[in-house]
Specification:
Order of helices and strands: HHEEEEEEHHEEEE
Radius of gyration: 16 Å
Shape: globular
Number of helices: 4
Oligomer: single chain
Length: about 210
């Protein structure tokens, strides 16, 4: 990990640490296994990603401007089915930019992708299983409700592919993937946005 990535990760980890008590409390109530979901057609291969693939998707190293969109902190903890933290696991997220464009050549609108948005990022869980990202609130993509794609790995072994949604977003009711889940599963992957000390935040506990 490069020096700038380490520095930025430490900054975001500090934000997550402010809410560490909530993450620990989540372990006691974690019961629903995080539901799996389709990867979707726009998972960016390594060759498609920017050189900067850290956990801050809003700021690309070397660029002055930040990505457009409503910035928030996405945080949480990865746990096993017994509520124990999964340390050292890689979690990846990818999503469209604020205008619904994916960083992928198969997306016909990718030429208009926000050049200041990283589009893809990753983090490694700490000893307590915590992860944190700085990104933008997911935007509408044609035919889908707003969502963030997620993968979890243990080394090179993929453990989970899922999607996160905005809690109570009106378009959820018309989204086929969202409606295929039970109420408990949908709640487990729904982001409830709140104002924290560092701005807008959402938390998702992943149980695998």
């Amino acid at each position: 990990m490069t020096k700038h990535n380490t520095s930025r990760r430490s900054l975001l980890a500090g934000v997550a640490g402010l809410v560490g008590v909530n993450s620990l409390a989540g372990r006691a109530v974690a019961a629903v296994m995080t539901p799996r979901a389709a990867e979707g057609p726009y998972y960016p291969t390594p060759a498609m990603r920017t050189p900067d693939v850290d956990n801050d998707l809003v700021k690309i190293t070397g660029l002055v401007e930040e990505a457009g969109g409503e910035i928030f902190i996405l945080r949480g903890t990865i746990l096993d089915s017994n509520g124990q933290p999964r340390a050292g696991h890689r979690i990846e997220i990818w999503q469209c930019d604020m205008d619904g464009n994916y960083m992928h050549p198969r997306d016909r609108r990718s030429a208009n992708f926000d050049p200041a948005f990283q589009g893809f990022g990753q983090d490694i869980t700490d000893d307590t299983g915590r992860y944190v990202f700085r990104t933008i609130k997911p935007a509408i993509y044609p035919g889908r409700t707003p969502h963030i794609h997620v993968k979890v790995f243990d080394g090179d072994r993929e453990l989970l592919t899922t999607q996160f949604y905005i809690k109570d977003y009106p378009d959820n009711a018309r989204d086929g993937l969202f409606n295929s889940m039970s109420e408990a599963d949908a709640d487990a992957v729904s982001m409830d946005f709140v104002e924290g000390d560092s701005g807008l935040e959402a938390s998702i506990e992943i149980v695998i």
